[in-house]
Amino acid sequence: MAWLAWLQNFESTALRSWVAEPVSVRLGSAIILSPTLASNDHHINIESLYSCLASNGVQNFTTTPNDNHCLFNHVIQNPIFTRPVFNKPATIVLPQSKEQLATTISCCTHGSWTIRLRSGGHSYEGLSQTAQTPFVIIDLMNLNRVEIDLESETAWVESGATLGEIYYAISQASDELGFSADSSPTVGSGGHISGGGFGMMSRKYGLASIMSSMHCSSIPRPYFGPWIDGRRRVLGDSRKGTLMMVEYIVAWNMDEDLESHKFLSWLNELYEYVGQFIVDGNPRVSYVNHVDFDLGEIDWRNESSASNAIEISRKWGEKYFLSNYDRLVRAKTDIDPNNVFQHPQSIPPLLGLIKNNKDEL
């Protein structure tokens, strides 16, 4: 899985001045993690998953449970998800090629494991870190190749590459070219581009997703994202017609964690207060890179919720994608009818096709 990014001729080269050379991190298969599993069945099933991975040439994954959470914490950006209340992965797999990635997805699917893909670990709601059901993290850090083609002014970028690695590669190849995306070097390109990819230069040069297209292979597309033309246009048009984007953030120190409810309450009050100044004819919408579970969630374990997923998801789906929500449902149904890649706010497929295709999993 790789992104094709079109590079821009910027008027200055300030983009490269702060980008430090990235450190290449490789973790061996002996890394140990303590999993939180939901049932004894999955405790047995994890051995089958290990066997499936190893027998198909995937060796880079965690195996022996203990208190060493170094790999889980390695790229996590929000420490709140290290709390014991959040489920932890049964294993973390680090595929080293697209073939190993496809194999890992296949093994997880046959074992009925929920899949969480981790590119940079920046999800505000922990979509790459935790799940309601027993799950596996597929960490893409080894799929971080960046190839610059100066003649065509394009770059092939694997989705495990961070934005810092992309910016650094561009800076080494050219003093004039750049890529319009976020200013944080540790953000993963896969999650950032698939969610739109807003940055400081987006008003002038466009979102990262508009400057990108996805190279398709035999691998199922993760977390069905904005490479669909309709969603690209939503983000592009909203960039032209939106006066501002406001991000509400509150942070606290670890020793203040017991008072976190107070800080969150203050933030929610501020959000509601600002809402009264929104003109009725221009309703408040949301940006999917800043995913917000306060807009609603769907519990895929609940058969009643799953059967009404399209209408339940419409509540936040139309805030993220406006009138393109129904088009995305149809595209999701074509691309991932079995809902292999899902989370509490993912685009749902048409339910009938899920039932008809269960035997194929």
Automatic annotation (TrEMBL):
* Keyword tags: FAD, Flavoprotein, Glycoprotein, Signal
Provide the GO MF annotations for this entry. FAD binding; oxidoreductase activity
* Signal peptide coordinates: none
Q: Which domain of life is it from?
A: Eukaryota
- Does the record bear Glycoprotein in its keywords? yes
Pfam families, per database record: BBE, FAD_binding_4
InterPro entries found in the cross-reference section: BBE, FAD-bd_PCMH, FAD-bd_PCMH-like_sf, FAD-bd_PCMH_sub1, FAD-bd_PCMH_sub2, Oxid_FAD_bind_N
Per the entry, which co-factors are needed? FAD
Every FAD-binding PCMH-type domain range: 85-259
Q: Which residues form a coiled coil?
A: none
Q: Does the keyword Signal apply?
A: yes
Q: Which family does it belong to?
A: Belongs to the oxygen-dependent FAD-linked oxidoreductase family.
Q: What is this protein called?
A: FAD-binding PCMH-type domain-containing protein
